[in-house]
Amino acid sequence: MASDEALRALEEKVDRLTRQLSLVEDEHAVRTLHFIYGYYLDMCLYDEACDLFAEDGAVRFLNGLYRGRAGVRRLYCDWFRNTFTKGHNGPVFGFLLDHLMLQDVVTVASDGNSARMRVRALNMIGYHDEKPEPLEHMPQQFWGGGIYENQYVKENGLWKISLLDYVGRWQAPYEQGWAHSTGHLQPFDKTYPENPIGPDVLLPEMPSSWPDTSVVPFHYPHPVTGADWPDKK
């Protein structure tokens, strides 16, 4: 018969492994959630993308903050959907919006109720010569790239996006390439409702982009030294 000490050691080991397994499962769930977000964005499924957000979720985009369900839908449905698909929820003939996710780093809080993820986005966007209605105010075909530093929350047992924070780093027409990178999106100067598709809040500054090479702050400490990034959010 095992001693009391051996039983306690076994129980502690089971508890430790259970916690570790739970964190691994949460990490996988957060990563999968964001990858699914990317697939919805690919296919212009904006209703589905909005449903991935928490009740008080938000999006930082350009120099604006979109708050809550109403703000998130204003960005994805009132602006993106009306611009790219003329109000249709789903893909349309001749429009490409591939949104690849790479180099993801997921950090789950020890209590398993919140998490953060850094991930790189590589975008291929454009419309075909045969598209009936060309898109105005954007190049016909262009590359883009940026960094997400997102936050997630477990809401009623399900992981959801609490803050989607996308920093666009570069954008370039396909023909000229990134050496001639110029962004076609300009900073916001008005908020909603004065701007019907504007953010709820204007942020102090527009994130810098190429040829600037400043670091988008890392949410995680150095894995060897344990030091936090100096400009950690």
Question: Could you characterize what this model shows?
Answer:
The protein is of the alpha+beta class. Helices cover 26% and strands 32% of the residues. It is built from three helices and seven strands. It has a seven-stranded mixed beta sheet with strand order 3-4-5-6-1-2-7. The relative contact order is 0.15.
- Overall mean pLDDT stands at 92
State the helicity in percent bands.
25-40%
What's the number of helices?
A: 3
Poorly predicted ranges (pLDDT <50, ≥5 residues)?
A: none
Strand order of the largest sheet: 3-4-5-6-1-2-7
Structure characteristics:
32% strand; alpha+beta; 26% helix; 233 residues; 3 helices
Helices and strands, with pairings:
Layout: H1 4-42, H2 46-50, E1 53-61, E2 64-67, H3 68-84, E3 95-108, E4 114-127, E5 141-155, E6 158-173, E7 201-202
